[in-house]
Amino acid sequence: MPLDLVPFGFTPTESLAYSALASRGPTSAYDLSKALGVARANTYQALNGLVAKSAATLVSREPQVFKPIAPTALVALISSRESTKLDVLEEQARSLDEAGAPSTVEFDGHRAFGELVLRTAVRAATVSCLAPADSLSTLTPIWRKRAADGAETNLWVVQPQESRDAELSFRVVGRVDTATVTDMFGSLAVVAVTPDAAILGRFSESGRLTGYWSCDPLWVGSARGAIAALIT
Fold this sequence. Notes:
The chain is α+β, with helices and mostly antiparallel strands. It is built from 9 helices and 10 strands. It has 2 domains: about 1-100, Orthogonal Bundle (Arc Repressor Mutant, subunit A); about 105-230, Endonuclease Chain A (Endonuclease, Chain A), CATH 3.30.870. Strand 2 (about 55-60) and strand 3 (about 65-70) form a beta hairpin. Helix 1 (about 10-25) crosses helix 3 and helix 2 (about 30-35) packs across helix 3. It has helices spanning about 10-25, 30-35, 40-50, 70-95, 110-120, 135, 140-150, 180-185, 215-230, and strands at about 25-30, 55-60, 65-70, 105-110, 125-130, 150-160, 175, 190-195, 200-205, 210-215. The strands form 2 sheets. Strands 4-10-9-8-5-6-7 form a 7-stranded mixed beta sheet, sandwiched between helices.
C-alpha cells in the first residue's frame, strides 16, 4: 500500500515518488518517470521536492539517482516537524485572551492520547492520571520531566489486584484494581486531569483506546471526581 504523505505537506506526486523509491531502492529520475507513467519534468520536480523536505537524497548526478530515507525515519521526521509546528501554535494560542466556549475533542488511538497528554500536562501546575501500566509507561518522558521540574504529579496504575506490582521507571502514588475501573466505566479506562482540562478514554475489546479531551469545567470536575471515587 503506498503511503499517503499529502496530509503532511507533500504533493501527490511527491507522495507517489517516495512510495516508489521506498519499494525500488535508489532509482534514476528517468527510470522512475517511466515506472510511474509521470512526465519526466513532473518526476524531477517531485524528487527534488523530496530532497528539499529531507525525505530523499541525491546519490548520483550523472545520471541523477535518488535514494529515499527509511520509512521509519520518514515517520520520525514528520512527527518532529508536526510537533514543532504544534509548539509554535501553542505559544501563539497562549498569547491570546481566553475567549469562546469550552470545547470537547474526540481522540482515537494511543498516539493521539499521548499527544494530548503531552500538550495538556507538560506545563500544567498539577496533573493526576490513572491508567494501566502500559499506557502510563508510554508517557514516561512526560512524568520524568515533571519530576525533574518538581511539578506536582499524581499517578495511579490500574492492574488486577492479584497481579504483581508493575515495574515502572517513575513514581506512582497508588494502584487501583482493574475490576473497580471496569465497574465504573464498563471497560478498562484512562483518566487524566489538570486544573484546566481533562482526558477520559476507554479501551475496546480489541484494546483500542478512544475518548475525549475537554476544557469544559463539567468534564474537568467529572474527571477529578472519578479519580477521587476510584482511589478511595
